[in-house]
Amino acid sequence: MPMREFEAYPLTPDRWDDFVTLFGPSGACYGCWCTYFRLPRAERDLLDAGEKKDHIRKRIEAGPPPGIIGYVEGQPAAWVQVGPRSDVPQWNSPRTVSRPLEPEDAGDDGVWGVSCFFIGRRHRGKGNSHRILAAAVDFARASGARLIEGCPIENAKTSQSLGLYVGSAAVFKAAGFVEVALRKAGRPLMRLSLAPEGVLA
């Protein structure tokens, strides 16, 4: 079967309706609307799904794009949250497995993170995680990032596993990421250098 056409673009305000279509009435994961790593838990727990949706809408409107939205045959199919670590402060918490190797990386705009994935149900298990991660890496490189990191999960039971919102380690490995830390079994911190050839990151 020929591969369905896949295209990916930075999530700008004009693509808001496509983002809403992809996330659906449940807001992706139980009404999260990709706020999990953006807001402290105490603050996030006070918000209902509609308020979380409004929070991410305002973030998208403020720019720069907080991630990449992917399309299969013109229909919204995939999302990845990618940007400087400073844009997702809860991803840097000292209590998380995704915390930076060096504390200063949390505020370094050259150190980016791939913190969340969401693949539409009809589009899972078809290679779209690989495609949207490749688009995220290209976006980070074009935006001047030196390093891009992820903290995926290993050994997810199926492509439908809820834990895959952080991505699959196999997908990161296939994209050239290497493990740089392991704070919890099955959750490696992985990194890809985006420095030009011959230049140390």
From TrEMBL:
SUPFAM superfamilies: Acyl-CoA N-acyltransferases (Nat)
Segments forming domain N-acetyltransferase: 6-195
UniProt xrefs under PROSITE patterns: GNAT
A Pfam family annotated for this UniProt entry: Acetyltransf_1
GO molecular function, one term: acyltransferase activity, transferring groups other than amino-acyl groups
Name of the featured protein: N-acetyltransferase domain-containing protein
Organism: Neorhizobium alkalisoli
Lineage: Bacteria, Pseudomonadati, Pseudomonadota, Alphaproteobacteria, Hyphomicrobiales
